[in-house]
Each structure stands twice: as C-alpha cells, then as structure tokens.
Design a protein that fits this description.
This protein is of the alpha/beta class and 223 residues long. Helices cover 54% and strands 10% of the residues. The protein is globular, with a radius of gyration of 17 Å. It starts with a strand and ends in a 13-residue tail after the last helix. It binds adenosine-5'-triphosphate and 2'-deoxy-guanosine (GNG). 2'-deoxy-guanosine binds next to helix 2, helix 3 and helix 4. It comes from Lactobacillus mulieris. Keywords: ATP-binding, Kinase, Nucleotide-binding, Transferase. Belongs to the DCK/DGK family.
C-alpha cells in the first residue's frame, strides 16, 4: 500500500485524522513528538533562545519516524518534514534565529534528505493537507488546551499564528514531492460528524485508487 503524510497548521487536525485514517486503512500511525518533547514548552516561553534547539529536536525525531515509515509500505505520518523548514524560516524571519543558524539548519536538512534517497521510498505517496482559517485554528488550539499555545499565555501568539497561516498557503501551492489533496478543515468536522468523516475518507480513498495505490475492490479495515 502507501505512505501518506498529513500537513497543516497547528491544531488543524493532523493527529486526529492520522488516527482515523490509519485505522481505516489498517496501517501504522506515526505521531510528532509533542507531549514527550522537553524543548517545546521552553520554546514557547523564550522563542528566541530556543528556536534553533527546537528545530534540531524536531528534525531528529522526524527523521527517525520517516526512516521507520518509509521502510515498510504501510503508514500514515501526522506531519511532513517539509513543514519543519517552513516553521524555522518563519521564526528566522521574525528574528528568532541568526543567519548562521539558518544556514546550518538548511545544510543539515539537505544532508538528511539526501540520506533518505537510500530508502525504499524517498517521498510519501500522497500529501493530505488540512486547510483551516485562523478562527478554526484558534478554536482547535483552545479545545486541545496545551497551556503554552494559548493566546492568554502569550498574546503575541495571535501574530505568530496568523503569520504561520500566511506561510502555509504558498507552501502548499508549491509542494511537489508527491500528489496532494486539500481537505477543508473549516467545513468538515471529521471528529464529531460521521458523515463528514466518511466524506474525508472517501476523498482520500478515491485519490489513492486514482493513483493505483489501492485496488478498485479495496474494503476498509476494522481495526
Ligand atoms: N475536523 C475537526 N473538527 C472538530 N474538531 C477537531 C477537528 N480536527 C481536530 N479537532 C480537535 O482539535 C484539536 C486539535 O487537533 P489535533 O491535535 O489533531 O491537531 P494537529 O493538527 O495534530 O495539531 P498540532 O499541529 O499541534 O500537532 C483536538 O482537540 C481535536 O479533537
Ligand atoms: N518552531 C517550531 N518548529 C517546528 O518545526 C515545529 N513543528 C511543530 N511545532 C510546534 C507547533 C505546535 O505547538 C506543536 C505541535 O505541532 O509543535 C513546531 N514549532
């Protein structure tokens, strides 16, 4: 079968959809290190001090997941490595990383991506992007309730999140490592609505069939 990677801003629903999709496909989910990430709370407390360290932490953990996920043929990952660079460049643009840190990161990422060329697959088979507005993003961040991501923890996060959304739009348009589809995360409540969930799953399955990554007579797993 296939390697599918989710993308989208903070709180878009990537982990949630990764869980739903991997159960439906009967494949293995891979989640980003968040709750066991010791650098993330430090970053939100002092972004300028910890932006580079956080990026190295994510790059390292993401690289391990990708290597595991690309080795066998049957996985869903809850964020792409391509978005890490978006995050870091955005942070650098607002003065949270020096140009030396950016150059070092870019070179390291490039070397690590070259390592992936030796893997059975170099890139995912499909990118599933969840598109959300600022209002939806904030609602989901509040619902999930990680303290350091809340606007009352740091009011400057409003600008940070709006900027992040503005970087995602061109990023998705320019993404060309694999076929891609966009899910309307404002409209489709795949957590609460069975009908919306099925619509999202049907869209993904139809795309996989169109790409010959699933047989026409494929039926869902009931894991
Ligand atoms: N389509 C949806 N409709 C309603 N609620 C949703 C939807 N998707 C996710 N949620 C809720 O929003 C919150 C954030 O979702 P989730 O953790 O899956 O986002 P994420 O994109 O993985 O976030 P992050 O980038 O921070 O890892 C959770 O509380 C989840 O239950
Ligand atoms: N600075 C920075 N760089 C990244 O590559 C990156 N990837 C994820 N995150 C933050 C967003 C959510 O709070 C939380 C979960 O996605 O982690 C990142 N932050």
């Amino acid at each position: 079968m296939t390697v599918i990677v989710l993308s989208g801003p903070i709180g878009a629903g990537k982990s949630s959809l990764t869980s739903i999709l991997s159960k439906y496909l009967g494949t293995q989910p891979f989640y980003e290190s968040v709750d066991n990430n010791p650098v993330l709370p430090l970053f939100y407390k002092d972004p300028k001090k910890y932006a580079f360290l956080l990026q190295i932490f994510f790059l390292n953990t993401r690289f391990h997941s990708i290597k595991a996920a690309l080795t066998d043929d049957n996985n869903v990952l809850d964020r792409s490595i391509y978005e890490d660079s978006l995050f870091f460049h955005m942070n650098a643009d607002i003065g949270r990383a020096t140009k030396e840190e950016v150059a070092t990161y870019d070179e390291l990422l490039d070397s690590m991506m070259k390592e992936l060329e030796h893997m059975p697959k170099k890139h995912p088979d499909l990118l599933v992007h969840i598109d959300v507005s600022y209002e939806t993003m904030i609602k989901r961040i509040q619902k999930r309730g990680r303290e350091f991501e809340q606007l009352d923890y740091d009011p400057t996060l409003e600008d940070y999140y709006k900027r992040l959304l503005s970087y995602y739009e061109p990023w998705y348009e320019n993404y060309d490592y694999s076929p891609k589809i966009k899910i309307d995360g404002d409209k489709l409540d795949f957590m609460a609505s069975e009908k919306d969930r099925q619509e999202v799953l049907d869209t993904i399955i139809a795309k996989l069939k169109e790409m010959d990554k699933l047989p026409e007579d494929w039926t869902p797993s009931h894991n």
